[in-house]
Amino acid sequence: MGKLVIVGTVAFDEIETPFGKTDKILGGAATFIGLAASQFDVDSAIVSIVGEDMDQEHLDLLASKGIDLSGLEIVKGGKTFYWKGKYHNDLNSRDTLVTELNTLADFNPVVPDAFKDADVVMLGNLHPSTQLSVINQMEKRPKLIILDTMNFWMDNALPELMETIKHIDVIAINDEEARQLTGEYSLVKAAEKIQTIGPKFVVIKKGEHGALLFHKDNVFFAPALPLEEVFDPTGAGDTFAGGFAGYIAATGNTTFNGLKNAVIHGSNLASFSVERFGTERMQDLDRAEVNKRLHQFKTLTQFDIELK
Ligand code: AMP
Prior knowledge:
Helix 8 packs across helix 9 (256-273). The protein starts with a strand and ends in a 7-residue tail after the last helix. With 308 residues, the protein is an alpha/beta fold. Helix content is 37%, strand content 25%.
């Protein structure tokens, strides 16, 4: 069984969408990544930090999915990272209303010894220096290091981000972030430019319009499944990343073909995540449902065409 290290937030989120709002519920990039990756046969560990206010039932949920929590620091008397966001009517854009770093402000990730030889490292959206510190703790070079980031770090920690990007294999960002990072409007040119910095593979997420995978001269496109119900997009990108990383950790396949399948698995899992608030849909998702939707994915994109 492949080993996967996941670094990112385990958080409290408060979310408002056109369909309703929540109180403080379980969220965080590492949470979504871990839940998605647990759909595969992988040994995964979350490296993160929370305060004493984090509910035991949330931690029990993650543990029940087989996720190792020995790298999750619980700070006595501390408060967990808290994020509040409100989506606009089209669900494509949102306003961040509150970000309270709390314990995350002093986060020094410590990779558990048993995971220092992990096959895959999934660096969730965090300060790029924190991400780099995880890479530096690995005792052997992982088969694949995947990084997610956001425009906030491009605005506030660009030199550190450029340094961290040199050490990774796959970057997973959205289209606007790819444009901001490279100054290129064309996503093809942006992906080319990013590959000259370090990552051999570039994944560009386009929300409800799917995801692109670039590697040298190869491009692959996976649509997002057209859904009847989209309730809350929070964590869709992280769920995608968790499915992507989980599939690779489980199969060990780091070829372009392997990564194509990883994009499909990531897109498939993200399609579930958005159907309910927060992590609700991912909490009891079973593999039969996941598999059934994979079949839908296949028929969505398959066609017979006669080519001369
Ligand atoms: P996404 O919808 O993919 O952007 O991910 C949403 C998750 O990211 C939420 O569950 C938040 O707890 C978490 N989050 C929001 N802002 C930040 C931040 N500045 N740093 C790290 N995680 C964040």
